[in-house]
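Lecture 7 notes: from sequence to structure.

We start with a single chain of 492 residues. Read the sequence below before looking at the structure.
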Amino acid sequence: MSPLVIACVLIVYFIALFAVAVVTSKKADNASFFKANKSASWVLVAFGMIGTSLSGVTFVSVPGTVSIVGMQYFTMALGFFAGYFVVAFVLLPLYYKLNLTSIYSYLEQRFGSPSYELGALFFILSRTVGASLRLFLVVNVIQFLIMDALGVPFAVTAGITLLMILAYTYNGGVKTIVWTDTLQTFFMLSALVGCVIYILNQLGGWDAAWQAISSTKATSGLDLAYVFNGDVLHKKYFLKQFLGGAFITIAMTGLDQEMMQKNISVSNLKDSQRNMISFSAVMVIVVGMFLFLGALLFVYMQQFQLEKAYVGDAIFPNMVMQHMPPIMGLLFIVGLVSALFPSADGAITALTASFCIDLLRFSKMEKSEEEKAKIRKRVHLSFTVLFFFIVLYFRWLNEKTIVDLLMDLAGYTYGPLLGLFAFGILTHRALIGSKWNVVLICLLSPVLTYLLALNSKAWFFGYEMGAENLIVNGAITFALLYLRSRSRQNLA
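Now the structure, written as tokens:
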């Protein structure tokens, strides 16, 4: 496929995003940027959040996992579903009751300023590194498919990509992101459905495809439909996956400013809860479709006798680009970019909001709205530049293992947030001693969690820690906070 054709398609794609931004950012102000004037449609927010939640890593990796461990990832998706109910009926009522713009301001009300700023810093650290990694992956794809053939350096590709993101998020912020995420989610799901339909047709329809999937255990020894792992010691034990998925959702959606700023942009709590519940149901279906696509891809590879040629993440892109018509390749590229960009554009917007509200304290700043808007735009531009240099650093590092390392980062940065919010909501105890003790506890708990994860097999009779790292981290934070607190009655 010609790189110029791919480039033209992506240019048209970005023009569409920019056109949406121009329309939605008219008369935008700080309130529009931070929470869309609390006038966003819950239907649009729910649909757009699918694209934000499913990164490009998911777009490629979830189908790829089926060729290795079957559909065990689905138990984690069921955990996601349970976690969204906790977010909808425990966290959202709290955020609406307190009328929060930044969800971390709750920590100031409950524990004091150091906890508030620490919570914001944990979010900024995790989201900056994680979103930069996802952006690096999409820039790599664009570089490989287009820019290398045109002789364009990687740094230029990264710069152009970030300028495009900056162009459509600079003024409108969340007000624009709600609409662009909706458009990008549509493209991503179109690519998913299109690939499923194409392979189904190639395999002779639903019945023939399912028969082929069911027979792989006999022909290759791999059970593609394997969902529930019953080995208690295994990292993918189904209950561990389910609980891990639930707590990952609570922490990485309910305690994440990027995800919550879209939910609290809805005018009222009832509609925001409708958004969360409908979104959670659709998410389970979409993850199921990605897993089904992975099974179809494996069977499709068997037709070409390629089942040992591609493994894991390499399956989806190679099969589409090498063994399907060019139109399917274009569909895949648009879908991949659509899965990756909501992670980057929403992250830069959320990071700008968190930095301005949580660290610069916009609400207490004695400046006009016009002056605040100038500061906000400089912060937005600064985060864009920061992303650029981090992406270049990943390129220079060129270490494949960095991906796994950064995926683990979320468990160590969101764990203390999980413990803080859980302690604040579930207990009425007051902390004793210096307010800075909270900071020490939140720095200590990830270290203790890491030591447990590193030695779990040796210390716990072969038990291997996996998705529950986040839960353990949050539990340690909760326990240490409890030890440094007293009943309010005893303090009276």
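The radius of gyration is 23 Å. Keep this in mind for problem set 3.
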